[in-house]
Structures are given as structure tokens and as C-alpha cells.
Here is the input.
Amino acid sequence: MMPRTVIRGGLVITAAEETHADVLVEDERVVALAASDSDVARGWTADRTIDATGKYVIPGGVDPHTHMEMPFGGTFAADTFATGTRAAAWGGTTTIVDFAIQTKGHALREGLDAWHLKAGGNCAIDYGFHMILSDVDEGSLKEMDLLVDEGVTSFKLFMAYPGVFYSDDGQILRAMQRGAANGGLIMMHAENGIAIDVLVEQALAEGRTDPRYHGEVRKALLESEATHRAIQLARVAGAPLYVVHVSAEEAVAELTQARDKGLPVFGETCPQYLFLSTDNLAEPDFEGAKYVCSTPLRPREHQAALWRGLRTNDLQVVSTDHCPFCFTGQKEMGRGDFSKIPNGMPGVENRMDLLHQGVVDGHITRRRWIEIACATPARMFGLYPRKGTIAPGSDADIVIYDPTAQQTISAETHHMNVDYSAYEGKQITGQVETVLSRGLPVIDGRAYAGRAGHGQYVRRSTCQYLT
Here is the structure.
């Protein structure tokens, strides 16, 4: 039998409201909430009582953009599903949606089965999958219908990486048309990869090989151009569109304009774009390689536009795009040629804390913090209200969060399987204390209490913003 748990005395924060309430958990679910000083709450008995006095009681985070064990540039992302989901739990995230990859010339089913094998029995928290379409043809279009029926309801395409993941406008249009018909949401990496490759070739020929040139060639205008083009293709197809890892002010403007017209267009950004900049890419002695990701870090002035977009709901989600490569032996593959640096950064453990720092700094409210990190990702990808909120019937994915604790982010103390932190030495206010995943402790008083295999695969419904 599952233990019966009551969480007492905390401030329960959801996207909808803040209330001083006790929470009763039984059989993996939230059973009831009641005012902390009420006769109802006082009458509850439980096998375990968690004292949350002075703490926040928040839904477990939903990170809808991770890449565990992802093959890229001749190597693999350093976090496995075991290490990556454990690190996510340490950071207050209780559900990830990772990307299964179709290999060119192979069926979608083959890629999905491969990712099920990687994740099955290894995850500390619950997980789902998106599908990366590398090869849009009649076969893969038909398979999209089957995957939607199985709970894989979102499909990622790339306007970048020619020769690897790139899809041309015709392929993108056809995939969008299929998504419009079957309810699948198209996720877009919006950068003009054809033009970027020209600029990469020119930079290397001129001897501009350091990591900072990764950001300089992947110009903000080529992100906004691709974002604009993706929006117009989605309009032609009559399809919704979700643009991943938005980093540039100009791209936010394209999303804002589309949403002002009432179009079903959505955007996510990531903590690295809110807190880091091209200053990091320019760090000496090849240290800038640690910050190579795509879309790239932008000049610091773009951060204000991203925070504003999160406040105005022109950006709806903050994910991590967690794709870690160690500095030693992996990022170093690009010494002398920035184009060979594996693209990606670690962050699955830091997202909830960094966004809470955004609350402390006055960028967003507490409820908006929960909205962009928990509730909206769950709704966007067909997981709500099972995930993303604290309500009767929801999974008991609950975080006890200490809003006053002081911590310093460091590779010496993080739990991601990577040899550096992108936020090394950053001091932040707020820290996860206890994490329940479906009612069971994964983090218990800042000690790990989880196990590989507790996490279950979650079938997703279609995007709940379109129903």
C-alpha cells in the first residue's frame, strides 16, 4: 500500500492561485486540499506528515525539452536517462518530455522504440516523448497518425543543421498539414541553417575559429527570418506552431505579431537566454565552448525582451533544452574550429531555481513562475491536470520549496553528469527541500530518496490550448 501523506502549513502556489492549505496525498494522487486551520485539515490522519511551515508547496516542474543520451557531432549527451532524471528531481522537476529521433531513411517507430529502450526502467521521474522528424516522406507522415494515437503528440522539425536534421519548406509544410489533420503539434527549431552554413564557412576561412564566432554567425536576423517563415507556413497549413528555444528579441517580435492576430503560435525560451549572454561565449582560453548551444546566446540586451515576453504571454514556456556535453573530451572537439563544438548545455537541475530567482529579482510573479515551468508545459503537451498543478485527482508530484534558502550553483555540488556548470558561482535565493513523485519521496530533506525505474512513461493527449 502507498503511504498516506499530509503536507501541512505551507503556501500552496499554482498558476491559478496562492493559498495557505494542507494537502492530503493517497495512492499516488492528491486527494484533497483544505485550509490549514480548518477542522477538515486537522481531522486528517496520515502515515507521514511533512511540515511545510514557511515554505512553498508547488507542483513538480514539467520540462518539455530535454535531450538525454542524444547523439550529436560524433558524441553523445553526457546525461543518461538515469543520471538526467535524478538531476531533474534534485532541481524540483518531476516530469520531462525528451526527444526520440528518427534516423534518416528509417521509420519513426524505430526511433521511438530505441528511446523507449534507453529510458525504460532507468528514470527516477515520469517521462514522455516528442518525435524528431528527420525524413519527411509518405511513410513518416502516415506514422505520425499512429504515434498521436499512442500519446506521442508533438513532432519537431529543424530549419537548421543541413545534412543532419534539416527539412526544407516543402517538407515542413507537409508535416504541418498532417499535424493540422491529426492534432499533432509541430515544434520548430527556427534558424536559417542554409544561410548560417555560408557564414560558418566564411568565418573559418578567415581564421575566426573561437567559440564566440558560433554566436556571431548564427545571427538574430536569421532566427527571426526563420521564425517568420515558420509562422507563414503554419498559416498556410492551418496548423498550430510551437517555436523552441527562442533567444532573440527579433524572434519574440515575430511571435508577438502572430499572436496579436489570434494565430495559434506559441514560444518557449530557456534559462540560458535569460541569464547568460555572448559575454560568456567570449570567455578566454576556450572556456566559451561551454556556452555553445543553438540557438546561440545573444547580447545581454535581448534578455529584457525575453522577460517581457514571459510577462505578456508572448512566450509561454521555459524549458531547458538540456543537452550536456563535458568540457573535457567533448566540447574540446571544437578547438580550432567552433563548428565542431557539440551544441548544447546542461541545465535540467537549475531551471526551477533560476526562475525563482526571476521572481526574487522582480521579473515575474510567483504564480507566473509556476505557470511557465509547470502548468503551461503540461497543458501545451497534453499532460494537464495530471501534471502541472496541485488539485484533487492530480498526480502527487509536489515540491516543498524553501524561498529563503541561499545557495551557490556549482559543478562541485550539482548532480548532472557533466564536468562544468553554466552558472558556476551564481548565488541564488530559493532551494528545493523535498520532492514527491506520484506521492513517493524522490528528494527528502535535501537527500536523494528515489530510484531508477520509479519513473513511468506517460502517454500524452494533444495540445490543450487547441481544444
